[in-house]
Amino acid sequence: MFDPAPAPSYPYEETPEPHPLLAPVLGLLGSWHGRGRGEYPTLDGDFTYAQEVTFSHDGRPFLRYEARAWLIDTDDAPIRPAARESGWWRIQPEGRVEALITQPTGIAEVMVGAAADGTVELATHTVGLTPTAKHVDATGRRYALTDDDTTLTFTHDLAAVGQPLQHHLSAQLRRK
């Protein structure tokens, strides 16, 4: 089936104290799992997917970020793996966020944004592409804690393959 959640980014049995700069993103720590819907004009149609997102830390002012998704059928059974990405979110003073996110499809995103009141908004600063990757111009991501921090709402906008920036993905995730 699918492999378990990734190991935390620290080698010890106990989690170190979070760095004070992590205060605006502490609610994200842990693993989140749920389902979502996706669409894009260049795809054959809308799709439903399951997603798992994990945020961890090692005591420094960084979040380790991992996300994976797989397409699911109408009974929520996995059809096949879909997206996978990993990276680091560098938390700066006053809730500024610099994120480095890489994907096995040859896309590396550097995003900037802010974290405040349980919400992180990120927008493209730079996109790096391998020679055979699909062309991506920009993305926007929003992670918002809702329902007393028990739900993580995720949205992803995309400008790629000649299309303007527009909605691509949305999901509702619950803490595992």
Q: How large is the radius of gyration?
A: 16 Å
Report the span from N to C terminus. 18 Å
The secondary-structure class comes to mainly beta
Question: What global shape is seen?
Answer: globular
Strand content: over 45%
For the largest beta-sheet, the strand count, sense and barrel status come to:
10 strands, antiparallel, barrel
Spell out the helices and strands N to C.
Answer: EEEEEEEEEE
Number of helices: 0
Oligomer, anyone? single chain
Give the SSE layout:
Blueprint: E1 30-38, E2 47-56, E3 62-72, E4 78-91, E5 96-103, E6 107-116, E7 119-129, E8 136-146, E9 151-160, E10 166-175
Antiparallel strand pairs: 1-2, 1-10, 2-3, 3-4, 4-5, 5-6, 6-7, 7-8, 8-9, 9-10
Commentary on this structure:
With 176 residues, this protein is mostly beta strands. Helix content is 0%, strand content 59%. The chain has no helices and 10 strands. It has strands spanning 30-38, 47-56, 62-72, 78-91, 96-103, 107-116, 119-129, 136-146, 151-160, 166-175. It has a 10-stranded antiparallel barrel. A hairpin with a 5-residue loop joins β3 (62-72) and β4. It is globular. The chain starts with 29 loop residues before the first strand and ends with a strand. 23% of the residues are buried. The model is unreliable at 1-6 (pLDDT under 50).
